[in-house]
Design goal:
28% of the residues lie in helices and 30% in strands. By secondary structure, the protein is an alpha+beta fold. A hairpin with a 4-residue loop joins strand 26 and strand 27.
Length: 596
Amino acid sequence: MTVKIDVLLIAALKMELDAAQQVFSASDTRPGGVAEWHSVDQDKPNPYIWGVYQMDDSQSFRIAFARPNRMGGDETGSVASALTEKLKPFALVMCGVCAGNPDDAALGDVLIADRTFNYHEGKTTTADFQRDLHPRDLSPIWQRAAQTLTPQGLPSYGAPSEDDAAFWLMERLYNGADPRRHPARQRYFPERSGSWESTLARLETSNFVKRTGTTLELTDVGRDTVERSMVYNVDPPEQLPFDVLAGPMASGDIVVKDGLTWDMLKAGGIRTVIGLEMEAATIGVVSRTQEVPEWVVIKGVMDHADPKKDDRFKPFAAKASAEVLERFLVGRMSARGAPAEEKHTVAAAANWRMRRNSSGLVKEIGAIIEREAPHFSRSFELAYNAAMEGYQDCESAERLAKEVEQRLGEKLVDERLKPKKRTVGQTKHRTEIKLQFSYSGRSVMARLWSTGDEYLGEARQGIETGLGIYKIYPEDRDLTPASLALWCGRSDDRSFGPRGVYSFPDTADIAGHWVEARPSLGYREFLNRSSAPVAEPDLDCDFYLGEMDSVVFQKSRKWVPHGRGIAVDVRSRTIRCGSFHEGKFASRAEITRLKF
């Protein structure tokens, strides 16, 4: 019997797969990891290994590793397609090495593709090459997680010494770059620390560097010092002050070392690419065609795709990318819940979130209610159906928003990159982009506010109405990806509803029917139990299905259970059916407690 897998990891090269297996394996020096790997189908075309990654005492996920015989999109696509069809993973992921844009990334930096495309797709004419881009985007939730990921504390991350910083400055000058404008300068010379001035003065005094006007250059002694290190110091670094960057990653069919591809992409209107490699676009395509819910490609920078390309940083980049992927997956899988076993029972599974598919656990709870508390069966059915309708409209809105993004292309990217500013209580000064085109006979638009909020979707007479996505920063929160909330579904004259999904910054969902911008019937999650709307022991639950409304609680408006419904505590395996009033069980209300 094929074991259900939560995460399928594909690596393009054996050394990348080996690095990932080393990182994900359990050891005596740290908690967590895979204690035992199992080999499957080693004598068949698509062999793989799998193991249970233990996050803590109660949560784990199953992960499988595989690789093609050769690198490249076609080979990777064959393996990824076959194994996703067989293993049905929740997430398809990749780690390894890539080339980094020298304007954005330093050697050793780790890049997360929030969008990927094949830049070799298009048409060649007698005059030029006309690109036909088909970008694939990370889901909004995973995109937010990628933007907030940091490398501090990972084994490959290390703060530089004074000598490291001095040699880094000399290497930049040797390569013809201005270290003052290099993206990694602040990691070696923090602002207002005085380290830049003192290091530069020391190098000048030692006759390694000289200054002519505003130009820095190496002396003969400095150049010889760098070249001597290049000859004698051939081993990869063990630690670097690397950064984690999220942005578009372009895939091609060849290994690039001409140093011209970055300018060629800019000339073609693609200015924001942070990485080049050969397989990321394929991962995005396979995730879509095989209907894998989530995907991500994370790769370390081993070179800048220029004539100076060599393999010294390759082992470091492979290992660092695997470490970043591990940290990313642990965060995402922890938020999702532990993996489902072959039989959906509460004892065997904490993977209860409905998300965009029908959770087997939620269905099982419905069967229990129908059998043991049939007078609440209708309430469950109505709320469940409302939630699924909300998720269906959410999916439709996401597809439409992607179409708007593709049509706007770089224009939308440029607007998103403009500085944003938020002041509590500020009126949302609006910057508008309007694109008139027919999408199934509908008028659509993109609208961006200077406060960072945005809308992509249908419009009627210039007003957000119909299917679409709102990205919203609450007025009392900082303008950071971690504080971003999402509305995904239908809107009526800028009001949420009649159906859709609201995702809080902690990714907890409210899905279902909405009336006048407030939930009326559906599904509500409490991922962070301390964020429950009311300090009420009877309501301490993981999710709720039933009627809801909006109430004022502690001077702020909350969306809470209100009416007939079912509260489910997965941890204690308890179902509570009853009537609710402003987030609490109503006084004198019947409360039916069920165990499962």
